[in-house]
């Protein structure tokens, strides 16, 4: 599997299903700046911050060379982050789980629905069945990426961390392929790709400089 690296060509998105818009790959968008908004349907922060922002940028910059794509993924809560609930969102504006709970608390739903819709293409990440064949390699990759001080920790602490990671990875029914290919840390995340197909940013959570970075590429 080719992994994404900043400053290198963005690898293809692994798509399970397109639910809105025409099936599209990054290679089809050469000459345009691409923003991929990565979210989960059971992710309140995605609906509070990422998706309204992506929708706004789509409308303001689509005629200036920007393409926005929505990519729904699932790395947790597999019973809620489903194609069915994504379809419910896109077709009726209904949200579920923690998203619905928090938006209701903040009076941000219009009736039972989102006060905005998504106008850009949206796809579901490809979810591959979890196997135990490469479990230790997955743990090694996670430790190398997320725990740079791992080798300096006491042996007992390292063993305990690996045991927790082994239990976590083993219980997952699926592995989200694009999420892993781009080494994302969570949702919401943003992928920003320039007109030549080079990955310029991969950010998790707050990305205050997004519009400035995007307009600079445009």
Explain this structure to me?
This protein is 36% helix and 19% strand. The protein is α/β, with parallel strands linked by helices and 218 residues long. The strands form two sheets. Strands 1-4-3-2-7-8 form a six-stranded mixed β-sheet. Strand 2 (33-39), helix 1 and strand 3 (66-72) form a beta-alpha-beta unit. Helix 1 (44-61) packs across helix 3. The model has no long low-confidence stretch (mean pLDDT 92).
Which class of secondary structure composition applies to the elements? alpha/beta
Beta-strand segment tally: 8
β-sheet strand percentage? 15-25%
End-to-end distance: 30 Å
Gyration radius (Cα, Å) is: 18 Å
Low-confidence stretches: none
Strands of the largest sheet, in order across it?
Answer: 1-4-3-2-7-8
Q: Give the overall shape.
A: globular
Compact overview of the structure:
With 218 residues, the protein is α/β, with parallel strands linked by helices. It is built from seven helices and eight strands. The protein has helices spanning 44-61, 83-92, 97-105, 135-146, 155-171, 177-181, 210-217; strands at residues 15-20, 33-39, 66-72, 122-125, 127-129, 174-176, 189-193, 199-204.
Topology:
Layout: E1 15-20, E2 33-39, H1 44-61, E3 66-72, H2 83-92, H3 97-105, E4 122-125, E5 127-129, H4 135-146, H5 155-171, E6 174-176, H6 177-181, E7 189-193, E8 199-204, H7 210-217
Parallel strand pairs: 2-3, 3-4
Antiparallel strand pairs: 1-4, 2-7, 5-6, 7-8
Give the key terms:
about 220 residues; 6-stranded mixed sheet; two-stranded antiparallel ribbon; 7 helices
């Amino acid at each position: 599997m080719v992994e994404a690296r900043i400053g290198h060509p963005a690898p293809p998105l692994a798509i399970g299903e397109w639910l809105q818009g025409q099936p599209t790959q990054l290679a089809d968008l050469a000459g345009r700046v691409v923003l991929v908004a990565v979210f989960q349907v059971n992710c309140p922060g995605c609906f509070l911050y990422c998706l309204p922002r992506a929708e706004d940028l789509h409308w303001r910059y689509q005629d200036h060379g920007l393409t926005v794509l929505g990519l729904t993924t699932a790395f947790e809560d597999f019973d809620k982050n489903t194609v069915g609930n994504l379809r419910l969102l896109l077709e009726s504006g209904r949200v579920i789980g923690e998203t619905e709970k928090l938006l209701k608390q903040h009076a941000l739903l219009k009736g039972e629905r989102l006060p905005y819709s998504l106008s850009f293409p949206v796809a579901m990440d490809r979810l591959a069945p979890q196997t135990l064949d490469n479990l230790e390699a997955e743990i090694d990759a996670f430790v190398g990426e997320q725990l740079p001080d791992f080798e300096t920790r006491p042996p007992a602490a390292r063993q305990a961390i690996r045991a927790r990671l082994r239990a976590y990875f083993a219980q997952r029914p699926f592995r989200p392929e694009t999420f892993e290919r781009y080494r994302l840390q969570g949702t919401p995340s943003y992928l920003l790709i320039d007109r030549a197909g080079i990955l310029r940013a991969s950010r998790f959570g707050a990305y205050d400089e997004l519009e400035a970075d995007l307009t600079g590429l445009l």
